[in-house]
Known about the structure:
By secondary structure, the chain is of the alpha/beta class. The longest helix has 19 residues, at about 295-315. It is built from 18 helices and 30 strands.
Amino acid sequence: MKKIGNVPAEWGSLNTLKPLSKRQVDEKAKDLLSQMTLKEKIHQMSGDIPLVSGVIEMQLAYNKRPYPAGENIRLGIPGIRFSDGPRGVVMYHSTCFPVSMARGAAWDIDLEERVGDAIGVEARSQGANFFGGVCINLLRHPAWGRAQETYGEDSFHLGEMGAALVRGVQRHIMACVKHYAANSMENARFKVDVKISERPLREVYLPHFKRCIDEGAAAVMSAYNKLNGAYCGHNGHLLRDILKNEWGFEGFVISDFLLGIRETVAAVEGGMDIEMPFTWHFGKKLYRQVKRGRIRESLIDDAVLRILRQKIRFAQTGEPERYGKHAVVCDAHKRLAREAAQKSIVLLKNECAGKGKKPLLPIDCGGISKIAVLGKLATARNIGDSGSSMVRPPYVVTPLEGIQAALASDIKIIYNDGKNIQSAAREASVADLAIIIAGYTHRHEGEYIPLPPKGGDRKCLSLSTHDENMIQRVISQNPAAVVVMIGGSAIITENWREKAPAILMAWYPGMEGGHAIADILFGKVNPSGKLPCVFPKSEKHLPFFNKKATSIAYGLYHGYRLMEKNRHEPAFPFGFGLSYTTFVYDNIQLDKPVMGVFDSVRVLVDVTNTGNLTGEEIIQLYAGFVNPSVERPVKELKGFVKTELAPGERKRIEFIVTADQLAYYCEVRSQWVVEPGVYRMLLGPSSRMEDLLEAQLRITD
């Protein structure tokens, strides 16, 4: 059996012949704890990699092997063996899926669970038992450099997508949810103090974490930032009061790496269980503080029991026949990566070009002899951030390669990198159609790396001036032009949007992204993605953002909620995305017009495919509030479902809404309150009001 250190790589003494009940797991954990010395207990609570050599290794090749923490050779207890994410397994050469923001645009719970399953298999096949890649930080502002690592701006959507990833991963290994909490700035992440009152914290910034905890996530990673003056890694209100006590979280908390803990006593008392990935503030320092009586040993016991319970729990988990080298970047996972990319691409605009009589997409190759592919990103292996989330796949299909593979040999492809705009425009002018690939790379957004400078929060939300000028010049020479945007979150398109007949948002589409882009362009796949974040017309319509801030206030409003409050029309609304077919919604119904504060209601609607192609539609349910006694958003997402319909097919779609889903958090009473009154149930294909059908529901005491 492969080994990490001197402990068997699977589960050592924790292996059992028969599954254990929850009570038996607890008994086994307590028995192991009783055999440990104080030093052995404390060793469970920090990383096993030496500090100096570990820092050097992280700089040279972050997480190319599992990071162990808490191995106990005497008792045969393996450590956790950490692998990062979230677009795949960071270790070695693994399958690179589209970034989480892209997968958020798929709105596909089943797909995300299958991605999680593949990640779990590849991680365990390469020696890991812990996946630190369930990133569900809320996108407060699209300039956030690591926006690509999360699923979007809405807490409900985030929670459902994160829970799906947890389910898939935890068929095989432990899943860790991060970064808890209110972490949505990159450059200032080590110093910024997020000021937030209890209501927006509970209603906006925490529900998605609770959803993943309820799903059974084994671990939570704390964030670097402060929240109301206390570092999240020391924050007793977050870690003890809410997470462990109120929510009943039974797993353990790990620190974010290096600067996730600043002081020994505050971290342990605040609720930190493991310092990662090195022993810096724990280890000998923690031992001395316990011996001096500054930290109660009962807090150490609680932390270690949490860790042991999860190790024992996951020693019983898995599908051994699926693990091995054969499982890493296998054909099934390649197909899954392509499917995920296909379903994540959002068709933002699709109109006739010039004197054309039908929408430009899908591209009809009949009569086409020459296509111009323009832009340096067409040949770039552009799969996202190069920081801690970087996956190293064995290959990447670029957009140009995908287009070349999709076309017959009698269609000529002209490629121009676009550095010389006039040259690109000339190439476009002699082609039947132009495909422009424009957007960002890891140099423009991602984890902030100061030397050499790359990543970080975005400087602006538009494409580069060069790219915008190229788009406009190319379209002036050939109106049959498709713009494919690459990036991690919203892009402002006002300078050229009206001129472009067709626009696709492809995000960072992963190792199979080039094939997926071509599949959408040429109609092999009908686009079904919808935006997980609003695309504004102006940065002025967004919340305040200063990437150098040392203190910032977070409130109830951002994204579509803020735009609706201030009556700003977006360029493309939250939940928006076109298809090559058309869908009609009608016959919205409630199974009852009135319900009590402890009841639930069924909300139903008919959806019909009225076009000529089979397509997938994402039906979205929002709840609005009529004359509330406290300030509420215009509406909030409360449900979504993705379904496939053949031409002419009609389906009855059903949601169940419980009264507590409509509650607000009352700061005076420190509890959730369901207010009697009238609520609007809104169903449709996007958050745009004119797209939604409405039925009203009354809640009584």
